[in-house]
């Protein structure tokens, strides 16, 4: 049995109910015979992937949903073998750079060239080109992006690239200028409400307004999350009326605990304790940036107005350090120490030099 | 049609047949001869002489994207060798080709050492050397570049190199010093407008001067970008159910530009005075700027992130807004400039967009208080 998010995922552009002007745009582009390379961008859970899948279907028909997974071997420049699973249909192929780590350039180059140099063999195919979807395009290395540039120009006759990213900030300009940019904003609370109601209708139950409002506010624009919560809640309390409380994921509860620990006591021992908890979170593969942001956001909800900006400032500061440095834990910990000292100073009324006054 | 199969496997190279209808306009309107290159008069003039003398130094083309570097060397090569000999005389490698040190040693060297076969009866100059074009050369490793040095020297008589790059500083000095350098300028407004109008009229796309101005403004001297945007806009307006004229706003959306109202409203939240004579209905009146500064800024940042706008793009537009602001003092502006620069750096170091935007917002808010 699949999850509701998957089961009730819209399959065609007509099924998509929010951002209608965007769907209309995609429909006419698919019909125009003049389909460009595209870059879909927007926050997580806004429906980028769904929209891409619907666009593919519009381009190629239902055949595009017949997926197969191929195990492929690539050779790195240092002659190491690299096994990669690749999802594809007769009409498209999907790549997720994080699956191939630092060798993304090699894999992308190989796959694109291969596709570019083979013509569509299926004579009944509606389009002469194949589509290459690159997920999480913002995590493509610079090298891989550079490799894409000219390929995108050169092999336009047999291939179109669709990039999917949270933001355009990490993509190099030459890539952006070769794509039609499609911004997919998060659905509004009302639109999320409609989406939830649809799922409820298909599952044949009534979704009380109160529950819907609660879920929508918890999901903060992430529709995938909203539907996941709905399904979980429905399991917990089938009538969805009795005092619903949206259970937070374990890691989030854990982060809240860490925030509490920081505010309860500011001492060397406490730093060690928090450090242990941070390790625990990291070892469960929670991304360090998520950890930092979650703790920070709970901290600022609990402290005096005058401390909030400072806590966030140092969060931003150490988050960049995590990106450029090598040990995530060092910087998480440094931030915790910083926050503790800010907090302590605040309570003992000692004036601290304002470190980020300019 | 403009295709450059690699000479090494010329026979096997698939024959693409591109329907001119679906061909990207950047390819379709790629200059065919060096005389079609706009705005690079000096370079073209020097190269025109080489067509006559049929002698060519090693060359290094550098300059920002979309200024005609690749087009120029390709046009020149074709004018030298003609379509018939292009395949055997020109090797074009770019960043999408594997160009590690082993390839330099094997593929490039193999091509470089071949003595070109004499040609006769060609209407083209067909000088007795080959050309190796290393496009996007700044993405080659230092090692690979170093390995090129010897090859360049050893086979100089029968092989000329043309290195093409954006940043001349990324080319190692020993290579750069062996080349004549040609700098490509960002296209000036008049040349860009001229090319765009030419393409629009060839494609029968009705476009207003305002829309052309928006294309020029969003593409910052990069002709490839403005041509791509023009084609996208034309596509969208042609495929709309009721054909609509291309609006400047549409071009901004295609280019990923944040709408002015969003930027203004963000700026207003940070305490930038946006009321100066403008009749705009912003949801952030001065009344809502109270002691709740933090939550206010944070709410705005979350809103912008939900709408999917790029932090880097917003930052750059905010920069323009602040620097050109009529009433902010220069002291305030320089404080903001410092903050903007720091956040820009953090973003390019890979910092989280939401955290950085919040950092930007909170600090500017404070600096303007
Ligand atoms: N100086 C120029 N004159 C005419 N067209 C140009 C010029 N510069 C760029 N273009 C147009 O932009 C496209 C990209 O140019 P290209 O030569 O590939 O840029 P670069 O290699 O400098 O990034 C070309 O197809 C052409 O249509
Ligand atoms: Mg180029």
UniProtKB/TrEMBL annotation, chain A:
Gene Ontology CC terms: Ctf18 RFC-like complex; DNA replication factor C complex; Elg1 RFC-like complex; Rad17 RFC-like complex
Keyword Nucleus: yes
GO molecular function terms listed in the Swiss-Prot or TrEMBL record: DNA binding; DNA clamp loader activity
Main localization (coarse): nucleus
Domain named AAA+ ATPase: residues: 34-187
Residue ranges the record marks as coiled coil: none
Domain of life: Eukaryota
GO biological process: DNA repair; DNA strand elongation involved in DNA replication
Cellular compartment(s): Nucleus
Annotated keywords: DNA replication, Nucleus
One Pfam family of this chain: RCF1-5-like_lid
Gene3D superfamilies listed in its UniProt record: 1.10.8.60, 1.20.272.10, P-loop containing nucleotide triphosphate hydrolases
Similarity comment text for this entry: Belongs to the activator 1 small subunits family.
Protein name: Replication factor C subunit 5
Species per Swiss-Prot/TrEMBL record: Botryobasidium botryosum (strain FD-172 SS1)
Automatic annotation (TrEMBL), chain B:
Main location: nucleus
MF-aspect GO terms: ATP binding; ATP hydrolysis activity; DNA binding; DNA clamp loader activity
SUPFAM superfamilies, sorted: P-loop containing nucleoside triphosphate hydrolases, post-AAA+ oligomerization domain-like
Keywords from the UniProt entry: ATP-binding, DNA replication, Nucleotide-binding, Nucleus
The UniProt record lists the keyword rRNA-binding: no
GO biological process, one term: DNA repair
Signal peptide: none
Cellular compartments annotated: Nucleus
Pfam family, one: RCF1-5-like_lid
InterPro entries associated with the record: AAA+_ATPase, ATPase_AAA_core, DNA_pol3_clamp-load_cplx_C, DNA_Rep/Repair_Clamp_Loader, P-loop_NTPase, Rep_factorC_C, RFC_lid
Domain AAA+ ATPase: 55-190
Tree of life domain: Eukaryota
Gene Ontology CC annotations of this record: DNA replication factor C complex; Elg1 RFC-like complex; nucleus
Keyword RNA-binding: no
Similarity annotation: Belongs to the activator 1 small subunits family.
Name of this protein: Replication factor C subunit 2
């Amino acid at each position: 049995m699949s999850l509701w998010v998957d089961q009730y995922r819209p399959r065609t552009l007509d099924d998509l109910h929010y951002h209608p002007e965007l769907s209309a745009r995609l429909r006419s582009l698919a019909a125009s015979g003049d389909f460009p390379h595209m870059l879909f961008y927007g926050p997580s859970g806004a429906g980028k992937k769904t929209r891409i899948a619907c666009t593919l279907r519009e381009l190629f028909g239902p055949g595009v949903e017949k997926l197969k997974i191929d195990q492929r071997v690539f050779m790195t420049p240092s002659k190491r073998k690299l096994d990669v699973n690749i999802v594809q249909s007769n009409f498209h192929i999907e790549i997720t750079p994080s699956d191939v780590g630092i060798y993304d350039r090699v894999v992308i180059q190989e796959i694109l060239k291969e596709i570019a140099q083979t013509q569509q063999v299926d004579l009944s195919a509606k389009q002469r080109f194949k589509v290459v979807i690159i997920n999480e395009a913002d995590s493509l290395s610079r090298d891989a992006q550079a490799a894409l540039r000219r390929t995108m120009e050169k092999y336009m006759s047999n291939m179109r690239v669709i990039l999917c990213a949270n933001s355009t900030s990490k993509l190099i300009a030459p890539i952006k200028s070769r794509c039609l940019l499609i911004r997919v904003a998060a659905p509004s609370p009302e639109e999320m409400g409609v989406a939830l109601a649809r799922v409820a209708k298909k599952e044949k139950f009534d979704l009380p307004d109160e529950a819907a409002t609660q879920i929508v506010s918890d999901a903060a624009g992430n529709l995938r999350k909203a539907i996941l919560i709905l399904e979980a809640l429905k399991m917990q309390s089938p009538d969805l009326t009795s005092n619903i409380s949206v259970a937070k994921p374990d890691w989030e509860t854990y982060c809240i605990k860490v925030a509490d620990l920081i505010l309860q006591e500011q001492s060397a021992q406490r730093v060690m304790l928090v450090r242990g908890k941070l390790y625990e979170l990291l070892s469960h593969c929670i991304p360090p940036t998520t950890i930092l942001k979650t703790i920070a956001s709970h901290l600022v909800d609990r402290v005096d107005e005058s401390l909030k900006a400072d806590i966030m400032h140092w969060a931003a500061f150490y988050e960049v350090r995590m990106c450029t440095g090598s040990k995530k834990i060092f910087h998480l910990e440094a931030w915790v120490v910083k926050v503790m000292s800010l907090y302590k100073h605040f309570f003992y009324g000692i004036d601290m030099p304002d470190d980020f006054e300019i | 049609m403009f295709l450059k199969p690699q000479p090494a496997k010329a026979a096997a190279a698939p024959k693409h047949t591109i329907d001119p209808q679906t061909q990207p306009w950047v390819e379709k309107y790629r200059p065919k001869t060096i005389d079609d290159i706009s705005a690079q008069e000096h370079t073209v003039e020097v190269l025109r002489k080489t067509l006559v003398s049929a002698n060519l130094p090693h060359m290094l083309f550098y300059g920002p994207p979309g200024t005609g570097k690749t087009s120029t060397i390709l046009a020149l090569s074709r004018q030298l060798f003609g379509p018939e000999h292009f395949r055997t005389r020109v090797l074009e490698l770019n960043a999408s080709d594997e160009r590690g040190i082993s390839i330099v040693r094997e593929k490039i060297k193999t091509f470089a050492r071949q003595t070109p076969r004499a040609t006769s009866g060609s209407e083209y100059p067909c000088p007795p050397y080959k050309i190796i074009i290393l496009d996007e050369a700044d993405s080659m490793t230092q090692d690979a570049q170093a390995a090129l040095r010897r090859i360049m020297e050893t086979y100089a008589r029968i092989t000329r190199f043309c290195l093409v790059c954006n940043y001349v500083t990324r080319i190692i000095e020993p290579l750069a010093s062996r080349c004549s350098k040609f700098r490509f300028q960002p296209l000036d407004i008049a040349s860009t407008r001229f090319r765009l109008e030419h393409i629009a009229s060839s494609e029968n796309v009705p476009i207003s001067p305002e829309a052309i101005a928006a294309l020029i403004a969003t593409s910052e001297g990069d002709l490839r970008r403005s041509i791509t945007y023009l084609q996208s806009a034309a596509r969208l307006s042609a495929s709309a159910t009721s054909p609509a004229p291309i609006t400047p706003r549409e071009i901004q959306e295609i280019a990923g530009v944040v709408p002015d109202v969003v930027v203004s409203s963000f700026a207003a939240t940070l305490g930038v005075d946006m009321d100066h004579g403008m009749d705009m209905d912003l949801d952030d009146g001065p009344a809502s700027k109270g002691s709740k500064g933090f939550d206010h800024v944070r709410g705005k940042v979350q809103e912008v992130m939900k709408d999917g706008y790029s932090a880097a793009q917003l930052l750059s537009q905010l920069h323009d807004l602040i620097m050109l602001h009529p009433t902010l003092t220069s002291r305030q502006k320089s404080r903001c400039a410092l903050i903007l620069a720091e956040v820009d750096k953090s973003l390019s170091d890979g910092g989280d967009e939401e955290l950085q935007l919040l950092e930007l917002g909170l600090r500017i808010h404070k600096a303007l208080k």
